[in-house]
Amino acid sequence: MRNSKTKDLVLLGVLTAVLLVMAYTPLGYLNIGPLAITMNIIPVAIAAIALGPAGGAAVGAVFGITSFLQCIGVGGTSAMGVILFEINPILAFVQRFIPRVLTGFLAGWVYRLICSKSTGTAGKVTGCFVTGLCTAFFNTALFMLSLVGLFGNTEYVTELMAGRNVLVFICAFVGINAVTEMIASTLVSGAVGTALLKARLITPISTAKAEAA
Fold it and tell me: Which of 66, 182, 209, 210 makes the best surface tag, with the fewest CB within 10 Å?
């Protein structure tokens, strides 16, 4: 048990370090207009797979902090983040931080649920790819919903929405960004998770609990 906890802590540290490297290099973000294609969701997805909801939420929190820091020009600059920070810095923090924590937490439960339905290797492998996809989806959906929910009455967001309903606005606004993130997260998170599972380098909390059930 002690070795397992030590291994989890080491893995958490490694994934956090990877996320920080990505966040502060061109590997993490590709800024296109007010939004950015972010690859930082990949360490969050892998943490959700390997460490469960708590691990996913922890790495998601680090992602959220780096995202908020871009609002003040630390580690790059987010055009949207700068504007939201000027409108209300507290709400800007909430909008940047909470969705990323929830993304990791929910992704961990997705993987845990899949493993609870299938204890075989094929089920776990499928879970890795599905979790990668869901992580990207949760990140985009929660980010945009919080944007509309917290800043929907501001002139900035009102102009972006241009009279469209929330669903149409979100789909039109994220566009190719969301699709690219989902494809990348699905393939990379699925491949890395599968490799770690087959090499027996990690024993996901979710898997262990599913097999004990």
Answer: 209
